[in-house]
């Protein structure tokens, strides 16, 4: 089963996203900030990260940069999908520069979310 980290400080969005992706047979770990993402990645392997940009302690941009600098060649290349309500503050180049593969605007369209997740990881194993 493919494993996804959802980093999102809104528990409503986190819980909805988790339920929808679990229906698709993904294993979900939820965290509230970028610092927790890095702790989880240190401990385990994951297939994808869904990351809110605006989070306390360490935001999504900082966290993405830190992930891309990880020594582990597999973990440093994990796909990162940003979830953001204010993408207007950033250009797609800003996201690419820190290593974010793609972003999904809020309010979330869950059909698009599931499609994008499946583009990066297929859950057929």
UniProtKB/TrEMBL annotation:
Protein name: Response regulatory domain-containing protein
InterPro entries tied to this protein: Bact_response_regulator, CheY-like_superfamily, Sig_transdc_resp-reg_receiver
Modified residues (4-aspartylphosphate): 52
Any Pfam family matching the protein: Response_reg
Organism: Reichenbachiella faecimaris
Residue span, Response regulatory domain: 3-121
SUPFAM superfamilies, A to Z: CheY-like
UniProt keyword annotations, A-Z: Phosphoprotein
Origin superkingdom: Bacteria
Keyword Phosphoprotein listed: yes
Gene3D superfamilies: 3.40.50.2300
């Amino acid at each position: 089963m493919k494993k996804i980290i959802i980093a999102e400080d809104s528990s409503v969005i986190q819980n909805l996203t988790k339920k929808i992706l679990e229906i698709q047979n993904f294993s979900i770990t939820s965290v509230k900030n970028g610092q927790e993402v890095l702790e989880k990645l240190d401990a385990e392997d994951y297939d994808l990260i869904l990351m809110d940009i605006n989070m306390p302690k360490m935001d999504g941009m900082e966290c993405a940069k830190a992930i891309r600098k990880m020594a582990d060649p597999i973990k440093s290349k994990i796909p990162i999908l940003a979830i953001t309500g204010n993408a207007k503050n950033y250009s797609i180049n800003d996201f690419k520069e820190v290593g974010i593969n793609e972003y999904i605007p809020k309010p979330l369209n869950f059909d698009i979310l599931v499609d994008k997740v499946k583009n990066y990881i297929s859950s057929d194993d």
